[in-house]
Amino acid sequence: MPASTEMIIEGLTVQVQRKPIKNLYIRVVPPDGQVRVSVPRRTSDARIRRFVAEKLDWVRYHQQQLRERPAVAPSANIYEDGAQVPLWGREVPLRVLDLPARARIRAGAAWLAEEQVIELSVHEGSTPEVRTQVMNQFYQEEVRREGLPLLEKWAQVMGLSYNRVSVKTMKSRWGSCSTKRRNISLNSELAKKDPRALEMVVVHELVHLLEPSHNVRFKALMSQYLPDWQQVQRRLNGR
Predict the structure, then answer these.
(1) What is the mean pLDDT of residues 83-92?
(2) How many Å separate Cα 126 from the centre of its chain?
(3) What confidence tens digit (pLDDT) does each residue in 138-175 have?
(4) What CA–CA distance (Å, rounded) separates 159 from 136?
(5) What is the DSSP string of the chain?
(6) How many CB atoms lie within 10 A of CB 176?
(7) pLDDT band for position 109 (50/70/90)?
(8) Peptide bond preceding 31 in cis form (omega within 30 of 0)
(9) Strands 183-187 and 175-178
(10) pTM
(11) Pairing between strand 90-99 and 104-107?
(12) What is the pLDDT of residue 70?
């Protein structure tokens, strides 16, 4: 295993790993922004200190990004018949149908404002893992169904264009935006939250196409488009 040591550089605690590599690499690791540096085995401490000092602004920027990143609280996945499961800020009854067929999920026929039911159709004897996988697919479809029109709406309002949109289960953020490729990702967990949270995240990621960082300009743009975005964000993060 590579040798690991700890150094204090410019006030930063840095984990240094010496490996059989040719170049020096630095990472800021979530969730707490730990700094890790990988270096060739014979690299001197002085060179490591210079390398980190040169990257200091980059490190602090990414640590700040992590501090401002919303924390996604894990939710319990108990998908049994009769359970109440979250959907767009409400608790909805789950009806589990054991069928000798491929696992799938569909909305129940009584999909009314006052009587929503989710029907989870899975093969007999399905494991909790299978049910979780199918439910995750359902939540992904829900976020895509609700999120794509919101993206189109707000992109038009802001005069922006984007490329690919993906919906997936993420552990550390509600959404992300690749400003270079103009790709946007949304967390499928948003389907469990109030619909306003999805809209706030959509606007948040689109604003990143105008301002990549979470600086004063970013916050001003967010307030321009969604004046109550900070309240929505606090509720989303359980604060």
Answers:
(1) 87
(2) 28
(3) 999 999 999 999 999 999 999 999 999 999 988 878 99
(4) 32
(5) --EEEEEEETTEEEEEEEES-SS-EEEEETTTTEEEEEEETT--HHHHHHHHHHTHHHHHHHHHHHHHSPP---------TT-EEEETTEEEEEEEEEESS--EEEE-S---SS---EEEEEETT--HHHHHHHHHHHHHHHHHHHHHHHHHHHHHHHT-----EEEE--SS-SEEEETTTTEEEEEGGGGGS-HHHHHHHHHHHHHTTT-SS-SHHHHHHHHHH-TTHHHHHHHHTT-
(6) 19
(7) very low
(8) yes
(9) antiparallel
(10) 0.67
(11) unpaired
(12) 59
- For helices 216-225 and 229-236, give the axis angle rounded to 10 degrees: 100
> Which of 237, 231, 172, 226 is closest to 204 using CA atoms?
226
Read off the pLDDT of residues 191-222 as tens digits, 9 standing for 90 and up: 999 999 999 999 999 999 999 888 899 999 99
Residue of 48, 64, 68 whose CA lies nearest to 6 = 48
Residue type at 46 in one-letter notation = A
Closest by Cα among 69, 91, 71 to 192:
91
Higher-pLDDT residue of 108 and 123 is 123
Q: What is the mean pLDDT of the chain?
A: 84
**Total residue length of the chain:** 239
C-alpha count within 13 angstroms, C-beta hemisphere, residue 7: 20
> How many CA within 13 A on the CB side of residue 129?
0
Single-letter amino acid, residue 90: R
